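Cross-posted from the bioinformatics board.
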Amino acid sequence: MEKEKRVLTGEHFIQGDIACAEGAISVGCNFFAGYPITPASEIAERMSERQPCLGGTFIQMEDEIASITAVLGASWAGAKAMTATSGPGIALMLENIGLGIMMESPCVIVNVQRGSPSTGLPTLWGQADMMQARWGTHGDYRIIALCPNSPQELYDLTIKGFNLSEKYRVPVFIMTDAVVGHMTEKVIIPKEEDIEIYPRRYTTLSPKEYLPYKPEADLVPQIIKAGDGYRIHTTGLTHDERGYPVMSAECQKKLVSRLIDKILNNLDDIIIVEEKDMDDAEVVVISYGITSRVVIPTIQKARENGIKVGSFRLITAWPFPGEKIRELSERVKGFVVPEINCGQMVREVERHSKCSDKVELVPHTGGDIHDPDTIYEAIMKVAKS
Amino acid sequence: MVENHPMEPFLRTDRIPHIWCPGCGIGTTVNAFANAIKKCGISLDKVCIVSGIGCTGRVAGYLNLDSFHTTHGRAVPFATGLKLANPELHVFVFSGDGDLFAIGGNHFIHAARRNIDIKVICVNNFIYGMTGGQLAPTTPLTAKTSTSPYGNKEQPFNLPYLAESSGAKFVARWTTYHVMQLTNAIIKALNKPGFCFIESVSPCPTVYARKNRLGTGLEIMKFFKENTRREKGVSTRDIGIDFQKEFIVGNFVDI
C-alpha cells in the first residue's frame, strides 16, 4: 500500500471494513472519530493508519457519543467526516444523530450490525438495527440508509453515502453487517478521476445576504464552514431561516416539514434497488445486505422447478421504495421477505402492499444467515397461494 | 445621539433581550469574555463558541460569532471536532456546571487529558437553573435544591482540582465580582496553547439563592467580595467550595 496515495486504484483482495474505509477516503473523507467495537473496529484501525499520511484526522474518542459529536463539529469546520460502530454504539449516538439532522450536518455513520439486543452477539451478525436507523433518534425526520451486500459495495456505497449526505445535508447510514464487514473479497478501486464527488453546497452569497437555513429550490439550504466570516448560529432547537431558536408551532411545522420533504421530494434520486428475474415474476423476494446473497441461488432453484420468482433488492433501505412495492403488489401473487431479524423491513412491505396478506416474512434471530430452504419454502407457499 | 454599546459587535443584537434573570452572572461572564477577545485583537471571524444545554448553554445564541448550540453535555466533543478539523479556529466552550461536569464530565476529563487546544469557560452557579433548581455535581454539601430538599448529602466536584489532575495547562477560578481578573484569565487562556479551564462562580438569584435564602444577586456579589481570597501557591486540592464559606480564587495552574 502506498500510504500517501489517496485513491488506491487497482484490484484488491480486502475485507469489507477496509473497503468501507477506503471508499470514504476515496471520496475525500478527512476526519474520522470512533470508539472500538466489534465488528467495526477495523474501519477505525484503517483510518488511524491512513488519515495521518493524507493530512486528515483520526481520533479515538472516549465513547460513541463523543465520536458522533466530534464528527458533527468537524463537519461544521469543513471536513468530510465519518464514524463507524455497531448497534450498541449507534444506541449511544442517537441523540446527536438527531442534532446532525436538525443542524443539517453532512456526515456518514457506518453500522456494522451484529446480533442483538444489548451486547448480543458481538462477533456474529444480524440485521435488526434497520428500524433503529429509521426511528432511533426522537422526533419526526427522514434519514438515508444504504445496504451493501459485498466488500465492493461497501466501497461503492460509502462513496455514494458521502455524496448523498452532501447533497441533502443529512447524516447517511451505511447499514452493513458482520458478515459483509469481515468478508474478504475482490474489490476494484477505480481511477481517481472516475470517482464521483458531490461537492459541499457552500454558499455563493455574502455574509450580509446569507441566511443559514434558507432553503434552495430542492429544500436544502446552502452551507458555510466555521471561520469563513459568516458568523452563523446553529442549534438543535427549532429554528427559523436565520438559525435562531423560535418556540412556536408555526416555525416547528415549517422546519420539520422541510426536513422531511427534502428527502421525500427527491426519492427518485436517492432510492436504488436491484431487480433480477422480475419481468415475469409472480413471487418477489425482497431482501437487502448479506441476506440478498442467499436469495439469488434460492431463486435459481425455484426457477428450475418452474416457479416464476424474482429478486427485488433494497440497496437504499431508507427512504423505502414504497411506491414501487405498491405497483408490484398489483401484479404479483405476493412477497417473501427474509431478513436477519424478527420482522422489520417487512412492515414497510406490508404497509405499501395492496395484498398485505400475501407478504411472507422469513425471520431469523441472528448469529447465522438463512438456510436457503427456509426461503425456498416461503417462495413455494406464496406461489401456491 | 445614542452611541452604540461598545460590546455591540460581539452580540446578536436582534436576539436581545436575552433570557437570563436579573442578578444572574452569565451576562457578566459573557462581558468578560467579549472584553478579553477585544483586548487580544483577534479576528472575530476566527472565534467559535460552542455551548451545551441550560442557562449558560444559551450563550452561543447571543454572541455574534460562529456559534454552536449543541446537545446536553456534548459541547466539548463538538469543539474537539471543530478544532481538529480546522486548527486555525479559536474554539471556546461556554457552558454550565451541570452540563460540563455531570452529563458531560467524561468528555471534559478526556479533552483535558488529550490537551485539545480549546478553552472551556464554566459558569458555576451550583445548580441546574433552566430546569428549575435541581441538584448539580457542584452543589455544596447541605445546600438545598429542588431535588435535595433536606440538604445535599453528596460531595461536590472541586472543578479546578479536577481540571488540573486531568491535564489542563491553565486553570483559574474567579467570581462574577472579579470582572477584571476573570477577563485577564480569559486573555491568558487565549494566549496559551492547549486545554485551558476557567471557572466563573456566579449568582443564581432565581433558584439557588431563593432555595437557600441567600438574598438578591447584589447580596451574593457582596458575599463573593467579602468571602473570597487569593492564596499564593495554594494546591487546587485544597480549594473545594463549602456552603456559604469563604473560598479561594485565583489563577492556579499556568504551565
